[in-house]
Predict the 3D structure of the following.
Amino acid sequence: MSASATVQKTGRFIGVGVGPGDPELITLKALRLIQRASVVSYLANDEGGSQAKTIASEAFAGVTHVQNEIAIVMPMSTDRSLANEAYDNGAKAIAAELEQGKDVVFLCEGDPLFFGSFAYLLERLEGDFQCQVVPGVSSINAASSALNHPLTVLKESFAVVSGRHSALQIDTALEQHDSVVIMKAGRARPRILMALRKTNRMQDAKYLEYIGRENERIVRDVSTLEDKAGPYFSLFVVTKSERGTR
């Protein structure tokens, strides 16, 4: 049997972006795929809770058939080997469903391929199965909307970094680019604040948590922000205080 024939007889692995928090930011395509899926997968904590599944609650309300669920429980530990083990086990469970000809829809907060956990499963499955991605609204775009503030205009440069980057990398981005979004602020919040002070960009920065959710928080004056670790779902948006008109 040819490889192409094998692919046709197996299910598709579909990464679906559900947005950063607001259930209404799910695309029509994602909604349709979630509601028609035979199997839905998502990351979960030790108690079975899933942020992505919660965001997609309105989509699940329209499901009229029995769906199997694959919850991939991620350890709270920072030990990367434990996370890799969870992804390995999740990929095996998903593969078992795909081999039976069932489509598996994986729910991913934000966009599946932008700091998305879907990427780790994709690299484990794309060599053997047909894979598809449905883009989602990222927290960056949602943050700009929540602030009613453009990320970039005219010839401004734009960079995205993570709180997991080194102090030097964050400093460099702040010094070299007009607009900078610092993702995954969380535990790195104290040193991000330090970097903003060091590069004289405190007045340019805004801070957001849980964008699009009931507990959304926006701090427009980051000099008032607590100098301690924050939640995982948080970011800084840094733009020029004064912008040109051309």
